[in-house]
Amino acid sequence: WVTGKWSECSVTCGGGFQSRAIYCVESHNDQKGFNENLNVAEKYCWQKQRPTAERKCGTSQCPQWEKGDWSQCSVTCGKGFRVRLVECRQENERVDDMICSKTDRPDDHQPCFTGIKCPANPGSQYYKAYHISIFIYSNKSIAVFSIENLRIIQNLFS
Predict the structure, then answer these.
(1) pTM of the model
(2) Going residue by residue through the chain (158 aa), what tens digit of pLDDT does each one get?
(3) Which of 50, 75, 90, 121 would bridge with 63, disulfide CB 3.0–4.6 Å?
(4) Looking at the 3D structure of the chain, how many domains does it have?
(5) What share of the chain is helix, strand, coil (3-state, %, to 5)?
(6) Distance CA 131, CA 47 (A)
(7) Do 72 and 105 belong together in one domain?
(8) Which residue segment(s) compose the domain that 90 sits in?
(9) Could you tell me whether strands 86-90 and 16-19 are parallel, antiparallel, or unpaired per DSSP bridges?
């Protein structure tokens, strides 16, 4: 039996296959003493010694997005934002976000409504404190939100 080279793996992760050609050959020495292999029918080779033509490869887990729980709404009345941590992970470790598919990335922020109307003339210091919401996460990433126009002013996620 003579084997060819393994093909490239059919996938880079998640489980794939490689294949190779297997030949039954008969060896002959030519007149100059060089060994020459001639392909012959497989019935002439010992089947029990036939090498495997396929093997598994790319068995590592594919990177995927993992998302945390949503935070509470950033305001106590009216419309605000809530956020959550979204990380690209592979084999239980955080990896660069570029490795995960951008199109499959879950949202890390979304608008929320408390169901409570805000006062028509908010004059209290309590209310003014909620015009800007700052979220500081345990991994030291920070997000700053503007409540007035429901958009992120600055996103400093690490």
Answers:
(1) 0.53
(2) 999 999 999 998 999 999 999 999 988 777 776 777 888 999 999 999 999 999 999 999 999 999 999 988 888 888 888 989 999 999 989 999 999 999 999 999 899 988 888 776 555 444 433 444 555 455 545 555 554 544 444 444 43
(3) 90
(4) 2
(5) 10, 35, 55
(6) 77
(7) yes
(8) 65-156
(9) unpaired
